[in-house]
Amino acid sequence: MVSPKKSDRHLLLRGTTWHYQRRVPKRFQRFDPRRFVRETLNTESLELARLRRDELARADDEYWASLAMADAAVGEGGPGAAKVARQHYAAAKAQALAMGFTYKPMATLLRDPDPDEIARRMLALRPAIDSDAPSAAFKADAVLGAVEAPRPTVSEALEIYFDEIAIDEQYNKSDRQKYQWRKVKRLSIAYFVEVVGDMPLTDITRDHAQKFHRFWTDRMLKPKKGEQAVTPNTANRHLGNVRVLYTSYFRHIGEEDRANPFRNMFFKGKTRAEVLAFDDAFVRDNILLPGMFSGLRPDLQLAVYMLIETGCRPSEIINLQPEDIRLDEEVPFIAIKPRRKREIKTESSIREIPLVGVSLEAAKRAPSGFPHYHDRNELFSASVMKAFKSRGLLPTPAHRVYSFRHAFEKRMQEANIDYGLRCLLMGHRTDRPAYGDGGSLAYRRDELMKIVHPYDERLFGEFDRSVS
Prior knowledge:
By secondary structure, this protein is mostly helical. About 50% of the residues lie in helices and about 5% in strands. The chain has 3 domains: about 10-145, no CATH class; about 155-250, no CATH class; about 280-465, hpI Integrase, Chain A (Orthogonal Bundle). It is built from 19 helices and 6 strands. The strands form 2 sheets. It has a 3-stranded antiparallel β-sheet, with helices on one face. It has a 3-stranded antiparallel β-sheet with strand order 4-5-6.
């Protein structure tokens, strides 16, 4: 016998034939009394042996994990039992694949039987059965499709979606972004459970989907006394979250062709909450009034000033990092960009905005950004709204923190600033062909100087005295 190289773990050459030989890991020996797992790979090719070795190793890993999980979940029931069922099913699929077959439920094998295929599967089981190994019964179940597919409930499927399916959607989100993203989807599933029940995902029919659709129809058109009618956007979001969960889960387990009971269910009505722009005169006579924000946190005041001349979303300003605030450049600017743990809204949101007027002066006083509000968008918005309400700085109920962004866009439009530059500075996508990079920072600065708000020099004098 010739031992393979160290890189070819679990491979052993006997004569001219490669074999898979692996010691049962110590942590699994109480579940599997075999000292070694040995199987012929029926090949003289090292490359083919490696491929078959990988399949067998994965199958053994899944098998041992399912045994350990089942042992740990004894008596737990509920989610623990569901997790065991999923692991056991995954192990069966891996074992079938390792033995050269696609896992097929027994009902499928018998519905339209292929005698040749069944014979091949039975023949492949002979060595395992003859060896009387503890895993023989499991191999038989895997090859003959006797392991029942897991049937997670809707709420259990949502956790699988979070933890296994939608990893890429969460990869670049900050902890707070991930929390908010999950929160909305949990709410949608909670509504479904309230209306239909926490039933197995496989049992959902078109009738259940229509019941959920009727629930949202009633919430829009016939709200209960004391309840506010929901908008089509809200209803579509919750219907869409359940629809996406259904499609994603069955695609995940290899059932891409399963019809989605929620298909083509949506409300055509579109709604958008109106947010009014601040008038220029109102900003200059009220918001930029020296001492108007006395008593507020200094970083809250500075963040508000940063919004005025940049047109940024509030989340973009409060999540700036020190390296994003470039004050030592010939043209000072801020860089809006994604990072490993901070996702931005769209690709078009990546941009560089020159600092002018009150925003430049504010940035000089906040070169490290706004750590207190980092990843705390709701806190910042709530704090600004509270401060503005108490100081009479919301002319109408339709004015919000976003009113600064709307005002910035309106000022650029009225100053006839190039449409492409306006889109670039706002972080909006444009269908116009891209020529160049939107102009130099100096050009952008000069264009913004056309709309910059004049302000009383005492504005930052008051601020500096208050923080000294």
